[in-house]
Amino acid sequence: MPVALALHVLSVVIWVGGMFFAYMALRPVAATVLEPPQRLTLWSGVFGRFFPWVWGAIITILVSGYWMLLGPFGGFANAPVFVHIMNGLGLIMMLIFMHVYFAPYPKLRKAVAAQSWSDGGKALAQIRVMVGINTIIGVTTVLVAAGGRYFL
């Protein structure tokens, strides 16, 4: 269980921390100092490097989470309520990420390649909303994971 827990937490830190940094630090600065061609090119490149890490984090979170759930907890029936909440929120986050990855992200990449800055801006706006939502859900999930056993 210690290995599963360590991998689980590390993967969550990479994913949620990456989103928090991108949304709260990188996005506001990029929006104020870069013109659309540079800003959209930056984001396309940032996502191109970050999203493989997210895929790896998702796989690790699922494997380690269900390893702990099915091992030490003995399945869903024996798991505390906070584990069910964490699981549900995590699955929602994964679905939102998959939407971003398969819908607006390819549009952003295509727009940047074609230098269609208006289309790229629309795609980036969709991604920004989804990443904002996922960041809120991610921080909430961390709070549930860290404090759930004491409050729920």
How would you sum up this structure, described in words?
The protein has 152 residues and is mainly alpha-helical. It has one domain (1-149). Helix content is 89%, strand content 0%. The chain has helices at residues 2-33, 36-70, 81-102, 104-114, 117-151. The longest helix has 35 residues, at 36-70. The protein starts with a helix and ends with a helix.
Descriptive keywords:
152 residues, mainly alpha, elongated
Give the total of domains: 1
Helix content: over 70%
Low-confidence stretches: none
Q: Mean pLDDT, as a whole number?
A: 96
Describe the largest sheet.
Answer: none
GO cellular component, one term: membrane
Transmembrane segments: 6-26, 46-69, 81-102, 123-146
Protein name: CopD family protein
InterPro entries: Cu-R_CopD_dom (IPR008457)
Summarize the structure.
This protein is an all-alpha fold. The chain is 89% helix and 0% strand.
Question: What's the structural blueprint in terms of helices and strands?
Answer:
Blueprint: H1 2-33, H2 36-70, H3 81-102, H4 104-114, H5 117-151
Helix pairs in contact: 1-2, 1-5, 2-3, 2-4, 2-5, 3-5, 4-5
